[in-house]
Automatic annotation (TrEMBL):
Function according to Swiss-Prot or TrEMBL: Participates actively in the response to hyperosmotic and heat shock by preventing the aggregation of stress-denatured proteins and by disaggregating proteins, also in an autonomous, DnaK-independent fashion. Unfolded proteins bind initially to DnaJ; upon interaction with the DnaJ-bound protein, DnaK hydrolyzes its bound ATP, resulting in the formation of a stable complex. GrpE releases ADP from DnaK; ATP binding to DnaK triggers the release of the substrate protein, thus completing the reaction cycle.
Organism: Acidomonas methanolica NBRC 104435
Protein name in UniProt: Chaperone protein DnaJ
Record text on cofactor binding: Binds 2 Zn(2+) ions per monomer.
Annotated zinc fingers (CR-type), start-end: 135-214
Length: 381
């Protein structure tokens, strides 16, 4: 079944989807099928893994181009368009590893250097925009299989009894089955990929060498990470049992939206409302910055609603760099409401005192618009 997955269908996007569309679709599907939201649902966990595999391929231009042209054949070592060493020069260790990982994830484990390893674990962590800016350490808890503390991972209740060769796979640790055009390789169901069995299995782990438990780890999230970033913790995934290598833990990051700041790569955008008098006369105001400080911003006289002002170096931190982006202020001029009698009189005096030419200078866009309206009707007549 895994061989027939369509990566675009998995993410529910069209084949001409943009990188932004892919990222949005990935985040939506990852949150939808995340194991924490679907506890005990094996189908949801499988779909969550498939979503991550699909995004891993489609977010990379070269891998996506290979997939678009050759489909899953591009990920095999003897893929189409190659001379037997893999498509486009990727070969073994490139796209083929991703396809191999997809099979391993969806069948309960991976193979590394010919040995069975534990399954990778995928979890999602939501952080605030401030935590993404400055970096943070987060404690994460997740369900996993760890080496059995009773038998030490041997799977045997008798520490003196050695393991014997598995009668199903004859020590290979894997079995093969034909599925249509494809030959699918799976971990052996009898020995779970170890290649050996025990005559007196441990009661605590039923001879598998691993037990289900809850782990808590501290994950260091570097400053400047983007929404959808992934952190890999090698060897922190599920135990392979019976001395096999453990899988990896993948932490997928989701950055919560902020009600004031909007991130655009290394830049920050913020909407700042101004009173009519501030915009007309000009002023200096203080605005908050993502690092928690305040910055002085000069508002020029005659600033219009929609004008954009920039504060250099006040934007987001750049990953693995001391550089920072810029902060862009989008001005919104408010028209005064609930005027007192005196305030209304002053505005009326201003309107009456200003001649037509003065009004045109004070509000050039207004004058230009109505001049075009006049020309339109005169031309139509």
């Amino acid at each position: 079944m895994a061989t027939q997955l369509d990566f675009y269908a998995v993410l529910e996007v069209s084949r001409d989807a943009s990188p932004d569309d892919l990222k949005k679709a990935y985040r939506k599907q990852a949150m939808r099928w995340h194991p924490d939201r679907n506890p005990g649902d094996a189908e949801a966990e499988e779909k969550f893994k498939a979503v991550n595999v699909a995004y891993d391929v489609l977010k990379d231009e070269q891998k996506r181009a290979a997939y678009d042209r050759f489909g899953h054949e591009a990920f095999t070592q003897g893929g189409m368009g190659s001379g037997g060493g893999g498509f486009g020069g990727f070969g073994a260790g490139g796209l083929g590893d991703i396809f191999e990982q997809m099979f391993g994830d969806m069948m309960g484990g991976r193979r590394s250097g010919g040995r069975h390893t534990g399954a990778d674990i995928q979890i999602q962590v939501e952080i605030s925009l401030f935590e993404a800016f400055s970096g943070v350490s987060k404690e994460v808890s997740f369900r996993t299989r760890m080496t059995c503390d009773v038998c030490g991972g041997s799977g045997s209740a008798d520490p003196d009894a050695g393991p014997s060769t598995c009668p199903t796979c004859h020590g290979a640790g894997k079995v093969r089955a034909q599925q249509g055009f494809f030959l699918v390789e799976r971990p052996c169901p009898t020995c779970h990929g170890s290649g050996t069995t025990v005559s007196n299995p441990c009661r605590a782990c039923q001879g598998t060498g691993a037990k289900q438990t809850t782990r808590t780890l501290s994950v260091t999230i570097p400053a400047g990470v983007e929404d959808g970033s992934r952190i890999r913790l090698s060897g922190e995934g599920e135990s392979g049992g019976k001395g096999a290598q453990p899988g990896d833990l993948y932490v997928h990051l989701a950055i919560a939206r902020h009600d004031m700041f909007e991130r655009d790569g290394a830049h920050i955008h913020m909407r700042v409302p101004l009173r009519m008098t501030q915009a007309a006369l000009g002023t200096d105001i203080e605005v908050p910055v993502i690092d928690g400080s305040m910055a002085m911003l000069k508002i020029p006289a005659g600033t219009q609603s929609g004008d954009q002002l920039r504060l250099r170096g006040k934007g987001f931190s750049v990953l693995r760099s001391s550089a920072r982006g810029d902060m862009y202020i989008h001005v919104a001029v408010e028209t005064p409401q609930h005027l007192t009698k005196r305030q209304r009189e002053l505005l009326e005096e201003y309107e009456a005192e200003a001649g037509e030419q003065d009004r045109a200078k004070a509000s050039p866009e207004h004058a230009s618009f109505f001049a075009r309206v006049k020309d339109f009707f005169e031309g139509k007549g």
